[in-house]
Amino acid sequence: MAETLQNLLLGFSTALTPANLLYAFGGCLIGTMVGVLPGVGPLAGISLLLPTTFGLDPTGGLILLAGVYYGAMYGGSTTSILMRIPGEAASVMTCIDGYAMAQKGRAGAALFIAAVGSYVAGTASVIGLMFLAPPLARFALGFGPPEYFSLLILGLLVLGYMTGGSMVKNLAMVVLGLLIGMIGIDHMSGYFRFSYGVVALGDGIGVVPVAVGLFGIAEILATAGQAKRPEVIKPKLRDLLPSGEEFRDSVKPIGRGTVLGFLIGIIPGSAHIISTFVAYAIERRLSRHPEKFGKGAIEGVAGPESANNAASCGALVPMLALGVPTGPIPAVLLAALMVHGINPGPLFIKEQPVIFWGLIASMYLGNLVLLLLNLPMVGIFVNFLRIPYRILYPTILMFCVVGVYAVNTSYVDVAIMSIMGLLGYLLRKFDYETAPIVLGVVLASIIEMSFRQALAMSDGKYAIFIQRPISAVFLAAALIMILLGLRPLIQKGINRGWREHLTKAEKGE
Amino acid sequence: MTIDRVSGFALLMIAGFVAVESRVLPLGTHSRPGAAYLPLVLAASLGVLALLILFKGRSALPFGKIKWTEGRHALAIMGACFFATFAIEPLGYRITLLLILFFLFGVVERMKVWWSLPLAFGLSFGSFFIFDTLLKVPLPRGGLGL
Known about the structure:
Chain A is mostly helical. Chain A is 72% helix and 1% strand. By secondary structure, chain B is mostly helical.
């Protein structure tokens, strides 16, 4: 405990430097804009800003990108409440009661509770992250290549199961991502694989052009030429304060949403989206007036919004403690660390205490900044929604080009982004999720290295993966995931409600 | 033909392609896996998953029912992306983006030229100033130094 507090003080001494405060503020501001604008998700936002962090020190860069991440999660609620359009998939549940409240003239109260809930959840889950990540990292120090390989396989299977749509299709996308990640020089033998003489492919396919293509360009392709935007309800600042009853009704949902969101957030896949469904369902079940849900119940805003922000923080636990991203956004954050020459993994917290604790402290400050920023400036953010889409999408395209080109100053990356954009667009048409591809690309090299090292250790015996206890536990859990995924194929009539809801949310329906 | 059947077949083709292309790489042994080892394992896994998608795909949406209402815009945007790929280094960032933005604003979105041209000019040159000049992110200047 004393050690943790001492480390936290170190973190605050890092985060409170003028430069890092500016990065945290800038990240939160940009993130909120990213979250407010439909079509620019947090993933594309972080990917596009990645090159701007190259000139910064690693701590400042990570603070900026993390600010964009939770700023976007925070900002997504604004469009949900005022327009019934989720800024990102995790805000879908907020649409239901948030928009109903806005129609009744309670938009300000809904925005206030969403902001306070997000702040409480964000701050509490940073405490969870602070206490959970270091012991988890110490535990993972005992992992060898077989344990890492099994853990990554488990992570990818959980991702396949917890992402919306068909698990078989999700796993196919994971494998496709891993295959894309195989392009480039094989680090163990030096052979060029699937590069066809393109020298720029020697370093492999970068995560940024893949993420921007699959999420940024594909989104533009799918939504350009869409019909006129629906009307935006503009809240008045004086209406922001909720009534005493609304405030009392929100306290417990915020608490429940925080705990639930953080725990679910650690699981790979679309955990932050799932956490909002679970929070909403629990609040409706526990409510004395379940009939109010869907017609403007404040609990229907407080619970999911808190869960969503807590989950986005929970997702950072495996990334920081184990070096294993649980979704595409932590994957890009991980790539950002690697760009700065930092090797993520169990030793990260021990070897880079300034970065880890600086990030933790900046998250406390960032949550406060977001609370102070979002409420008074909601009117300004709403104005972004008035920019016609025919002006917005070419501008987003421009940022995609500059963001991707700047990573390696290579036109090949722009080509990869374009191809990935086309692929992402077609995959949407064919009902595939694209997030597993990004994770596959990021994890390909780590999986291959640990797989080949494990086989070399055991002289080619696959039994090593089940002979080592930790690895065997991971593989047993992976097997359970496969069986759970196969269950609907074997047993007819199984309740697949949550997966269907998740699929709809991810498609923005 | 359903979307799952079409996509399952496409994935099967990709799996086959990877398997064929891996022949030029050393496979190695179980104790010392070579550069082709994991790609082949993955190609086999993708093949199995593709077959599952193919066989389970009878009840999926018919291929002909996919809506392509945004197709004209999508085609223009894809054209702009590929133009950016090949023009960004020879023409430079500012000229390339000026042309792309003017094309999207003026031609695709049919905005008036006195709107689209200054907007395209402001965004392309403005973003260059922010990223290249202020944030020191090097962007290409092209043969004309622009």
